[in-house]
Structures are given as C-alpha cells and as structure tokens.
C-alpha cells in the first residue's frame, strides 16, 4: 500500500467535514482487510480526545440481506466515540452526506470479556443492560458505494446512534424474538426482528469478540456495543420522522430537521 497516513488523513477529513470522497479501492484496489482496519483505527484515534473518548463498538453487515446488498459474506466492526451518541432524538440533515437510519439493539457491559471462543452464557454474564437503539449511518464514499475494505476503513459508516431511555435486564426478553416495524413518516418501510442479527443479537457480540481477539482486544466494562440492524436502513431527508416500533418494548423516534 502507498502511504497509510495519506488514507487515514483522507478518511478522517471526510468524516470531520462531511464530504463525500472517492472510495480508496479506486486508487488502491489491493487494499486488504487488515490495512482497512488499521486506517479505521488511526482515523478514529485522530478524533479521540478528553471530550470525545472511545465508548465502544458497533457491528455492521450482520444480516444476510445487508451482506447481499454489499456483495460480501462477512460481518464488520467499527468504533464508537462519545460524540456519536445522540443526546436528543433530532438530527439535522445538512450535517450529513446521505444519512440512513436503522433499528438496532445495543448492549452495555459491566465486566471485561475477550476471546474467540466465548459462549453466549459467558457473554450474558458480562452484559449489564440491553437498550433499543437507532443507528444513523452515513458512508463517506460517493453514492454510498464501496467494497468491503473501503467500508471498514470508513469505520463501518458509523456516524451517530440513539439509545432508548429504558434499560432492559438482559435475561427477561428473548432478544431474537423481538420484532420491529420501521416507519418513515406514516409509511411502514420495513419489518424485521432480532433473529435477523446472526440469528440472535448475542451472536453478534461473540462475532465481535472473535474479530477483536485477532488484534488482542476485547470488550471493557462500560463499553456499549451496537449489535446490528434488524431491518434495512431507511434513507432520510429534512422533514422526516423515523419511528421504530418494537411492539411491547416501546418505540424510538428520530426527527430529521
Ligand atoms: O451498520 C451497518 O450495518 C452498516 C455497515 C456498513 C454498510 C453500510 O453502510 O450500509
Ligand atoms: Mg448498523
């Protein structure tokens, strides 16, 4: 690869300035998955500060539908920082390139856990709470078009996320059976469920741990993990209201100004 720092600079600037860039593989078709994660790590490290600490991980491409859309058969992960966590349920469309919103489930952790061979039971003992979540993704690449290494380098399109106010005890709900309907204004756009996330959202955390273990990393107490989308994403514009209705568990709404 050419100079990794050139790509780090390019991606970090696009993330900061909300400017679409050409995908890296146009100029460097041989970009590897390992190099892409290095670009991700270094570009997100540039944004980290005392005011914007690292707060956790997100899993992406966790459903068969999404993998087919992008033409890959693997999940990916990204890094979450404090300023990605929405404090209100409002975003301003002009602050994004081509934002999309997807309904997710998030885990928070009370214990450290690591390894490529952990069981669901071991993950559950480390989980503190489960939250309903909306993720706002916004690829920094022109036309939301990329190959697998490109999207990894761009931090798995991470931009913002909203957590529901209500924490759920992990063991009281079958998270694979949770259903969600996604509305854009009054129109139902998608339906899905927790099983769309690798058959069960806990599998997504196991997959994250397996991928992180290759770099000698794991989940730390206090980390949040976005497990993945339960339906396709909805492309949003100013004036939209997106509602994810999780049935008896409640609803999350995001207003786009
Ligand atoms: O959160 C996600 O599943 C997004 C992963 C990257 C692919 C995309 O931007 O659609
Ligand atoms: Mg997502």
TrEMBL record:
It comes from the Bacteria. Keywords: Lyase. GO terms for molecular function: 2-oxopent-4-enoate hydratase activity. GO terms for cellular component: cytoplasm. Residues 82-256 form the Fumarylacetoacetase-like C-terminal domain. This is 4-oxalocrotonate decarboxylase. It comes from Lysinibacillus odysseyi 34hs-1 = NBRC 100172.
